[in-house]
Every structure is written in C-alpha cells, then in structure tokens.
C-alpha cells in the first residue's frame, strides 16, 4: 500500500507541469494497476479521481493558459 501511495503522490505532482504530464499519467496508471491487483479500492478511487480531474483540465484549459507555449 505504501508504494501505491508514493506513486500516486509522485504522479500527482508530475501532473502540475505540462512537460511532465505524460510521465505523471504513466505513473498513475501503474499505481492504479497495483491498487487494483491488491484490492486497494480506496486508493484506486483516489487515483481515478485524479485522472478524471486531469482529463477535465486537458479539455478545459484554465484562464490564462490559452496561447501558452507547449
């Protein structure tokens, strides 16, 4: 469980920077697989919530992000 928590936190941090979003999503996917494999439903729901939030931000850029360099 500790490894899933650490990977979740690390992946979440990586999502905060455009240049590391892909890495963060990859780490969250790995953490989600581990959580599901070990029956860690609470952690899995948390990871899925983070992923949904990230997907929403990708579709709806925050004010001030339009026109920013990629």
From TrEMBL:
Residues 57-70 have a biased composition (Basic and acidic residues). Residues 38-70 are annotated as: Disordered. It comes from the Bacteria. This is BON domain-containing protein.
């Amino acid at each position: 469980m500790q490894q899933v928590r650490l990977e979740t936190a690390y992946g979440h941090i990586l999502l905060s920077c455009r240049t590391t979003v892909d890495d963060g999503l990859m780490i969250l996917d790995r953490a989600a697989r581990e959580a599901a494999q070990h029956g860690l439903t609470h952690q899995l729901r948390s990871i899925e919530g983070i992923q949904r939030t990230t997907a929403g931000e990708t579709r709806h850029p925050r004010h001030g992000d339009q026109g920013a360099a990629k």
